[in-house]
């Protein structure tokens, strides 16, 4: 499949850069791409370009030729995107946070910094001011806040959930 994409890319690039493009040949190439491509975006771009290329092959109107050249450019952009190297794991799910990291997020503390008990307690007090049920917060959020403080102060006493 990659060899086919590379050959289509080369052919489309030649068509776009040619001064007097053979629009009938371009229409044949685009029809082949629309028929043989496994990528939905490339197939759609080819199907949209085909009528314009056929029209450009039938008459010598400059505006139609410009539109056909533009459609070839769109197809070339799609092929470039398909053949560009991909780095990293783009569709990978984010790593699951540990219970300690979740507790740090609840308290608004940085993830990778060593904390003292006093810093944890200060963060707890700061967050508890707005989450306490007497101050208009929910009791569930306040309980979660206290649990997060306990997890950070006594890290070995709690299992990862």
Automatic annotation (TrEMBL):
Superkingdom as given in the UniProt entry: Bacteria
InterPro entries assigned to the protein according to its UniProt record, in alphabetical order: DnaJ_domain, J_dom_sf
CDD domains, alphabetized: DnaJ
J domain residues: 102-161
Protein name: J domain-containing protein
Provenance organism: Bradyrhizobium commune
Taxonomic lineage: Bacteria, Pseudomonadati, Pseudomonadota, Alphaproteobacteria, Hyphomicrobiales
